[in-house]
Amino acid sequence: MKIDENVKSKEGLSAPFQPFGKTIPYIAAVGSLLFIWQIVAWILPEFLMPDVSQGLKRFIDNFSDPDFLNGLQSSLYRLAWGYPIACLLGAVLGLLGGVSKTFSVYLKSVVSILQSIPPITWVPFFVVLIGFGNLPIIFVITIASFFPMALSVLNATEGVNRTHLELARVMGANTRQLITKVYGPETLPAFVTGAQVAFGNAWRSLIAAEMVGGASAGLGWSISYAGEIADMEGVLASIVTIGTIAIILDHVVLNGIKRKLLKWRYTGGDEK
Amino acid sequence: MQTLQLKNVNKTFGNLKVLEDISLNVKKGEFAAIVGPSGCGKSTALRMFAGLETPSEGEVLANGKLVTEPDSNRVMIFQEHALYPWRTIEDNVRLGLELTNSPKNERRERVNRVLEKVGLDGFQTYYPHQLSGGMKQRASIARALVMDPEVLLLDEPYGALDAITRLTMQNELIKLWHGSNQTMLLITHDIDEALYLADRVFVMSSRPGKVVSEVQNEIPRPRDRNSVDFVKLRQEIMKSLDIN
Ligand SMILES: Nc1ncnc2c1ncn2[C@@H]1O[C@H](COP(=O)(O)OP(=O)(O)OP(=O)(O)O)[C@@H](O)[C@H]1O
Ligand SMILES: [Mg+2]
Question: B96–A171: do the CB atoms touch at under 8 Å?
């Protein structure tokens, strides 16, 4: 037998790893934000709006300030607990919902109720309940970020291709094999996108919870403290820090993991 | 090798009567085909042999034994190739060997052998989206063949392919079957395809489906689609389908 069809090119088309996607528009986006900042800085007096260069210098200097590093460490510590717990919880609940119709309705109701309550409103609740510290913030992160994961996994599990399942059954798959060979790999993309959306929620609620007084250290605490003492340079430097860390974690770390796990989507040609 | 049998089978989905008192018999090692109008229950009948549906009444038998669940000796090939997009071609073909826990050291060898048989040698590490439609369907046939099943159940395997690729694939299928002793049951919309490939063609009526005629095709292979015998059988089938 001969292969006469055109084979879609395997080599040459596979996209290189670009953490920032299209680099030039990205730089333009960052540039235009800094540009607006600078214009405002020219118009307003310096104590109200420092120059971009001053702000960025403070941003860099911060990394040799032990207080700042301490705060950064506390924030990342809370994230490192809250976010994985949320992902795990979301994944388990999502899978259960995908398997049981009743649980799916229940889960969707819980999520729609939780979604209508801004996550930081839980801060006072937990502070009263368990006191200041890391724990209330970790809880808030978990509440804020488990549901994108749960919904994403739930939809993917419900939507697993029926023919893919039947094919495995026809070939002799038992229930355990259906889970490991079909459900697992087929829902993996949903885990990854769910985790990415969850990360955005986790990060925003972490900073917000720190700002409204869940703790006395952390990036959110630093920015609200700088605001109280009218240290505009400190405020701007914190904003830059918060944005930069989120971008690095999301675009470099999470996207890197995504490309590793979903290698097949990025092999040969356009993203599938 | 196995025989396939439907004995007075009825199948209803809710209020919808799909199959009504249908009986058919496929001999061991025979190449049989089912033709019939869309929605008459062809896929439903095939899925019963695969163990994916159960009859409402009557019996579905393979080798004289009741079919109650899927069995890796009867493998079905689906209309949409149904390759797993996250697996490379060789991993897709290996699926059945993993599921049945066949000896690990033989797997690579067996996979490569069938890939060569269907003309996909060299495409082991490709993903399905990197192959053409015809190649995907070859891969899905390879995935079934690697199990060395006694029965192949094909549900319009070439329905989604263009006319030229279809003709090529029909020849390839005959070559694969020839001398394999496998029992083949093929569903198709295409009367010519059925007559070109099969020794026996079951013609089904529109829903509720039953067998309205059974055509024995003894034309020697390779068959000429324009020969007198072929045209005669085609007319016979068209008449039982009420097409004129
Ligand atoms: N799981 C199901 N639930 C309800 N109805 C079903 C189910 N499976 C099939 N049917 C119905 O049974 C009828 C026959 O379906 P089937 O797929 O067997 O037809 P077919 O002959 O293969 O048609 P086609 O040639 O278009 O593929 C259709 O009317 C379909 O709607
Ligand atoms: Mg069908």
Answer: yes
Contacts of B48 (CB under 8 A, 6+ apart): B6, B9, B11, B54, B55, B60, B67
Number of domains chain B contains: 2
**Residue nearest atom 18 in ligand 1 by C-alpha distance:** B41
Measure B43 CA to ligand 2 centroid, in angstroms. Answer: 4
Q: If you measure CA to CA, which chain A residue comes closest to B76?
A: A170
Residues B32, B133, single domain; the answer is: no
Question: Does the pLDDT value for residue A21 go beyond 70?
Answer: no
Which band of pLDDT confidence, cut at 50, 70 and 90, is reported for residue A2? very low
Q: Which residues of A198-207 are buried (b: 16+ CB within 10 A; e: fewer)?
A: bbebbbbbbb
What CATH number does residue A127 fall under?
1.10.3720.10
Residue A124 is assigned to a structural domain of this protein: yes
Nearest-CA residue for ligand 1 atom 22 is: B43
Q: Closest chain B residue to A266 measured between Cα atoms?
A: B127
What average pLDDT does this structure show over A165-185?
A: 92
| pTM across the whole model | 0.80
The predicted structure's pLDDT at residue A100: 86
Using the beta-carbon criterion (under 8 Å), do B130 and A272 form an inter-chain contact? no
